[in-house]
Amino acid sequence: DRRDWSVKTKSGITFMTRNSSMVTVQAGTKAIVPCTVRNLCDGTVSWIKRDEYQLLTVGLATYAGDDRFLSVHPFNSDDWSLQIKFVQLRDAGLYECQVTSHPPSSIFIHLKVVEARAEIIGPGEKYAKVGSSVELNCILKSSPAAPEFVFWYFNDRMVNYDRDRGLNITSDLPAKKSTLTILKATREHSGNYSCVASNSYPASTVLHILNG
């Protein structure tokens, strides 16, 4: 229940966003740092990056010399979120949502920025025998959201739909994993395999198919 952790100030202003909460976003995406304020009256909401003591926005005006920062306030709403476009690792830190009441009132939100990466489990070079079944398992690490897709490439060719090459690909997007299976390996299956997700840095491995 929000009433258990909402912050009501002496001036009657109530912050409906949990103080000292954490927002985790992926580098390169858009971050929304929330701040919901009730009973604002004549107060003004400002955003400050505390670890740099940098004033970002006052009301709907952006004061930072970086147009990636924007105060978002839908008309007649209590929402005064801070939007950061194309988030970078250096944007991580402590953000203050401050209301110019008497005395000033604030809550603080931690922004964590992660770089999602794909990983093909096992060594960078793999070996298998002709005629064997081979599985390449790809997982996504540090990804706060499921990908929209995972594509597999053999050398420079996308092979998600190449069943005639003896390949089978299954992906569990909510679980952030995908598996490429070679049903019966031949020497022609030797080469570079890459796992490319929509929201992560790709991963590659080299597969060598050897005569038994």
Automatic annotation (TrEMBL):
Taken from the UniProt entry, a GO cellular component term is: neuron projection membrane
Lineage: superkingdom: Eukaryota
Residue stretches making up the Ig-like domain: 11-101, 103-211
Pfam annotation, one family: V-set
Q: Which Gene3D superfamilies match?
A: Immunoglobulins
Its source organism is Rhodnius prolixus
Tell me what this protein is called: Ig-like domain-containing protein
Fetch the InterPro entries from UniProt.
Ig-like_dom, Ig-like_dom_sf, Ig-like_fold, Ig_sub, Ig_sub2, Ig_V-set, Zig-8
Q: Which GO terms describe its biological process?
A: synapse organization
